[in-house]
Specification:
With about 160 residues, the chain is α+β, with helices and mostly antiparallel strands. It has three helices and five strands.
């Protein structure tokens, strides 16, 4: 069973038969036919990229066979962590927040604001232009998201440090 839904652009491993031997190579997913069948461009070591029209998913618990594709170990680990998190933690409504911030939250928001002001002072010393404007916009966004994270806290508890 394939634990991850393949999507175009993802990196997978493919098992190829090259020069009489098996080689495991990275590949970029070009086409998804089903959860278990994909088309890729393989990038074997010291060879030109190889488009491969259709490959079947190889079960990681079995011996790798030529003509199959596999997820990398870290991808399987991340998928397991994600699935565990989805099962064990309810999804918070992004529009919920603590109506009355605690004194600790207010202090932490002040720290974020002061750090953003200090960094803004540095940004304002660089030449004016599109890039500086983007830097300021992104700094504003960073401070806003940090403060939203503090406001969400852990639903009534002090924020994590």
């Amino acid at each position: 069973m394939n634990p991850i839904k393949p999507t175009v652009g993802r990196i997978v491993l493919v098992v190829l038969m090259i020069a009489g031997g098996m080689e495991i190579a990275p590949a970029i997913v070009n086409c998804v036919y089903s959860d278990n069948e994909i088309g890729v461009t393989a990038h074997p070591f010291n060879r030109n990229p190889m488009p491969i029209e259709r490959l079947g998913y190889g079960d990681p618990r079995e011996i790798m066979e030529a003509g199959t594709w596999h997820w990398m170990d870290y991808q399987l680990g991340q998928a397991a962590k994600t699935q565990e998190a989805q099962v064990s933690k309810p999804v918070l409504n992004p529009f919920d927040y603590n109506d009355k911030p605690t004194p600790e939250m207010i202090a932490k928001m002040g720290e974020v604001r002061e750090a953003a002001k200090a960094f803004a002072d540095v940004i304002l010393t660089i030449p004016n232009g599109r890039e500086r404007s983007l830097a300021m916009t992104n700094l504003e966004q960073t401070a806003m998201w940090a403060n939203k994270s503090i406001a969400h806290g852990t639903q009534g508890q002090a924020p994590r440090s």
